[in-house]
Inverse folding.
């Protein structure tokens, strides 16, 4: 049981948090032919755009209502109207998703009312999907923006099936949290299809930001789930929600269409995947294919090989709640101790994180905790690079943004296979760090004493013990 | 805010700006801020511009007063390099919450300044205003003034909230903050007749360090670089320089001009991109210094260095020339780079098929005409779609641009090179141009292009089969009716799972199936209500016929 605390600082130093509207826009990018639109000044969009482009190394659709000082004072109706018309005429999108920002929430623009008026003024937009989500910058974080947007999409776009219509037993809805990469979604798709199921992902970033090369140039998102497909999600037999952040959307789905849901808070690690595969086998009525028996065995073996390196490691981790919960739990189950945990926003999973205290804070807090508590493994997004360099401990990049390495979209952590690869990657970092920075010298036993390890030394590689 | 709007108006009147000078009075009053089009705009805001211009001051703490978006989404994302201090890369923000917006954020800002001084003790703090606190009326000038007095540290307000305009306006507002609060507030330890300022040079990828050794060799001292690898003390005492070079086109012209006006420091506009431009800039620096009283022998020494460096650079480029001759490049960048890079590319033997002039002045355009001839293809504004078309139609072999348009080229399987701020190579000076040529060569002759452009061999096969399936599924009667065999095979046997006779026959033949159970395993057929029909099909196919698969294997 962890205690969740908030520091009393006036100045956030080295922010861990990314803003809420960006998370909202990110969710829209998993829809086919989508153009996310931030209602704010052009910088709000430009900063977010740069982040996405550098994370995915892809062209990213994101537009702005380009609010100026004057329009901020007078109200943004005309900017919203013009932006929608311009995008509608030029980019020919299938859906426009609008997120508010700090600027337009402060001046109190009523975008829902604007949209109503715009639909009246422009009949061609009467039934065009225009989805608005309120996401002020000065509240909540990236993950919350995603959560709200997916819930809104479910509320507005799904249709309740006719009373007598039969559900398709093979169809399942998947509502993935924003901590899953396009690679994770593809892995889940493969697993579900191997059980004969037909999955529908909302949002489906694997269709739009997986790096594929489109046949024609399009300014909108180049793949993802179609608006018509979202509408048909009510015909599925089950909804699988991944990450606690997706409870809201799953409940909205159940309320509107009656599709029951099962929430998986984690999909990284042996036990969570055992639960997941059991569930999928049950709903599909099929035995677990031999492939997954083998993958489970491989994961078990990976855990055996890696526990020498990960066991006893003192982890400092900074991530959004669901990612924090997933990764820290998996590493805890591998014998690591979570010595410092920092996150961005409130969540029910935080108090179940296997550590004493979870801080809603920034990377300065994380660095400070890691230093005082002697952490020797750091996990956070790319902005942790400066802290890692100063702390001189192995650094595994996870979360958004990851701008200084390539392949962020394909970093895998779900399923037996994903967990196996993740464990290998982290263990290899630890091994490389030992080789580079902790080679024994004739005098090393004299100059350094082994650090205190509450778990006892039995789990630690003998080589490490001698040089620690 | 009245002082801010007055300042913006003043910037629009900038007499040093060539673009401005050619405008009528009314046009000038409207400002250079092109009305942004909602839903069609791209580019940073004024806050972004101000931060870009000042962040390369490495020993200063940069504190952003606003909600998390302004700093949280953008910190530590620039490629400028520092020779020692690292505090400029630390992200400081007040991360305003809803409560701050209701009750005002000035208290929080003051506390934040105090925290930074207690924890990090930098020589100065730059405080950036953003949209939300500007809207609620937080007076950062007053807070900074109070904090400066109380905490005995220069706390500099940079009043450039995002919604007042573009990135370029932000650059200039940042310059105004320097002029008003920083430049001339300290004195240098000593001065020499060889002191120069570089204005608008950001030391991206450390490219300043490719020029600095040459200046040092000539005995020229960079008194202050605004702002690449700059120190607060240096810029505060930069008013004692003898001459200045304005490096990045128009970004900080107001700083150069006002320093000339106030302190009598003459400046010229130059570039270190390309061999000829580098030489020209070195000559200009020497000339200005000598005019201001430096010994005239500097000019001779400069010529010697230029001759040596030019010879070295040409020799290094020579081997690339035959490889690059006739290769066509498309250049999408802005301002001074639109011509300085053109010259550099031509030196390497490349042919320029077009250069963008969206952000260029009339002067810039004249220079382009000089370089590329009267019929130079100057691109005013090109949509990504048009660039994509140009590249796929093979009108260019390589595109050079900023990071945002890279995927237009890369997705068309076209070589691309980053020439804007996010690039990871330094292209300045004589060494830099050789590096640029080397990078172009590497990009053009990489073996991946040929592999990626080759059509997928199985694509035709799959597509052929798809059309076949589509016509079958669509039940295009004509074609099927023409072939009784097809029609016979298309007959559904299992209605639940929609499995046709042909599929069943193929499965039975190829696997040598004999039972309904086996057919179920090998096909989607359900075998419930269709059990009898499957038995009938099994009966029509002789059991003795050996499985086709086995036969093929033999």
């Amino acid at each position: 049981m962890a205690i969740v605390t908030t520091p009393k600082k006036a100045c956030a130093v080295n922010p861990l948090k990314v803003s809420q509207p960006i998370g909202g826009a990110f969710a829209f990018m998993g829809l086919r032919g989508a153009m996310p639109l931030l209602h704010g000044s052009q910088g709000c969009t430009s900063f977010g755009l740069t982040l996405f482009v550098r994370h995915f190394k892809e062209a990213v659709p994101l537009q702005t209502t380009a609010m100026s000082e004057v329009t901020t004072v007078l109200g943004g109706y005309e900017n919203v109207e013009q932006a929608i018309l311009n995008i509608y005429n030029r980019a020919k999108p299938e859906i426009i998703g609008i997120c508010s920002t700090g600027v337009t929430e402060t001046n109190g623009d009523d975008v829902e009312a604007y949209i109503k008026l715009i639909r009246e003024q422009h009949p061609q937009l009467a039934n065009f999907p225009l989805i608005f989500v309120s996401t002020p910058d000065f509240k909540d974080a990236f993950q919350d923006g995603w959560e709200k947007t997916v819930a809104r999409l479910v509320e507005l776009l799904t249709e309740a099936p006719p009373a007598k219509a039969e559900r398709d037993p093979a169809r399942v809805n998947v509502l993935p949290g924003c901590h899953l990469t396009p690679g994770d979604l593809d892995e889940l798709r493969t697993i579900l299809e191997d059980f004969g199921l037909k999955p529908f992902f909302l949002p489906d970033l694997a269709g739009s930001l997986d790096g594929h090369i489109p046949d024609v140039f399009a300014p909108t998102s180049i793949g993802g789930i179609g608006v018509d497909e979202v509408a048909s999600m009510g015909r599925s037999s089950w909804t699988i929600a991944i990450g606690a952040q997706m409870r809201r959307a799953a409940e909205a789905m159940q309320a509107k269409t009656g599709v029951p849901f099962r929430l998986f808070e984690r999909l990284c690690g042996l036990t969570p995947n055992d639960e997941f595969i059991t569930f999928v086998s049950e709903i599909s009525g099929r035995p677990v294919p031999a492939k997954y028996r083998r993958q489970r065995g491989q994961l078990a073996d990976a855990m055996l090989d890696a526990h020498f390196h990960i066991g006893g490691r003192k982890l400092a981790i900074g991530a959004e709640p669901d990612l924090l919960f997933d990764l820290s739990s998996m590493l805890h189950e591998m014998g690591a101790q979570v010595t410092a945990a920092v996150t961005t926003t409130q969540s029910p999973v935080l108090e179940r994180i296997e550590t004493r205290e979870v801080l809603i804070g920034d990377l300065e807090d994380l660095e400070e905790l890691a230093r005082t508590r002697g952490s020797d493994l750091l996990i956070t997004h790319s902005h942790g690079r400066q802290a890692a360099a100063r702390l001189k401990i192995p650094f595994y990049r996870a979360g958004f943004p990851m701008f200084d390495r390539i392949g962020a979209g394909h970093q895998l952590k779900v399923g037996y296979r994903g967990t196996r690869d993740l464990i290998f990657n982290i263990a290899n970092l630890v091994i490389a760090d030992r080789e580079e920075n902790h080679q024994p010298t004739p005098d090393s036993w004299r100059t350094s004493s082994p650090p205190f390890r509450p778990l006892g030394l039995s789990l630690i590689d003998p080589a490490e013990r001698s040089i620690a | 805010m009245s002082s801010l709007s007055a300042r913006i108006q003043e910037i629009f009147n900038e007499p040093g700006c060539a673009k401005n000078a050619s405008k009528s009075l009314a046009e000038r009053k409207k400002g250079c801020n092109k009305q942004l089009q909602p839903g069609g705009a791209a580019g940073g805001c004024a806050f972004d511009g101000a931060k870009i211009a000042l962040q390369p001051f490495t020993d200063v703490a940069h504190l952003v007063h606003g909600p998390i978006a302004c700093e949280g989404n953008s910190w530590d994302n620039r490629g400028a390099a520092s020779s020692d201090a690292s505090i400029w890369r630390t992200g400081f923000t007040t991360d305003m919450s809803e409560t701050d917006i209701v009750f005002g954020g000035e208290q929080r800002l003051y506390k934040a300044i105090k925290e930074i001084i207690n924890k990090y003790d930098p020589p100065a703090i730059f405080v950036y205003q953003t949209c939300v606190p500007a809207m609620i009326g937080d007076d950062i000038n007053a807070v900074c003034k109070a904090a400066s007095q109380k905490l005995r540290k220069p706390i500099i307000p940079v009043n450039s909230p995002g919604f007042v305009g573009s990135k370029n306006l932000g650059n200039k507002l940042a310059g105004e903050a320097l002029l008003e609060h920083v430049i001339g507030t300290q004195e240098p330890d000593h001065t020499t007749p060889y002191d120069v300022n570089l204005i608008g040079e950001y030391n991206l990828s450390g490219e300043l360090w490719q020029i600095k050794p040459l200046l040092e060799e000539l005995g020229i001292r960079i008194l202050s670089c605004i702002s690449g690898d700059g120190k607060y003390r240096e810029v505060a005492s930069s008013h004692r320089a003898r001459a200045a070079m304005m490096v990045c086109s128009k970004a900080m012209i107001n700083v150069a001009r006002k320093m000339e006006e106030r302190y009598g420091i003459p400046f010229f506009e130059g570039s270190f991109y390309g061999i000829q431009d580098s030489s020209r800039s070195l000559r200009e620096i020497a000339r200005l210094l000598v005019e201001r009283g430096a010994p005239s022998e500097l000019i001779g020494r400069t010529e010697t260095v230029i001759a040596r460096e030019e010879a070295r650079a040409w020799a290094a480029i020579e081997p690339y020339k035959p490889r690059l001759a006739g290769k066509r490049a498309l250049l999408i960048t802005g301002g001074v780079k639109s011509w300085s890079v053109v010259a550099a590319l031509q030196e390497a033997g490349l042919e320029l098929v077009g250069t963008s002039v969206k952000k260029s002045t009339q002067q810039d355009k004249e220079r382009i005409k000089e370089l590329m001839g009267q019929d130079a293809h100057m691109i005013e504004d090109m949509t990504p779609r048009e660039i994509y078309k140009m590249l796929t139609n093979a009108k260019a072999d390589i595109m050079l641009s900023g990071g945002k348009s890279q995927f237009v080229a890369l997705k068309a399987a076209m070589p691309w090179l980053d020439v804007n701020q996010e690039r990871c190579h330094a292209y300045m000076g004589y060494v830099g141009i050789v590096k640029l040529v080397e990078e172009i060569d590497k990009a053009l002759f990489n073996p991946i292009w040929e592999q990626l452009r080759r059509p997928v061999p199985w694509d035709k096969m799959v597509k052929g089969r798809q059309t076949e399936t589509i016509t079958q599924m669509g039940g295009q009667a004509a074609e099927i009716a023409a072939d009784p065999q097809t029609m016979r095979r298309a007959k559904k046997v299992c209605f639940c799972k929609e499995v046709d006779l042909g599929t069943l026959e193929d499965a039975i033949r190829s696997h040598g199936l004999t039972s309904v159970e086996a057919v179920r395993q090998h096909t989607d057929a359900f075998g419930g209500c269709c059990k009898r029909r499957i038995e009938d099909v099994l009966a029509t196919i002789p059991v003795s016929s050996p499985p086709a698969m086995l036969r093929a294997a033999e």
The longest helix of chain B spans residues 297-317. The two ends of chain B are 88 Å apart (CA to CA).
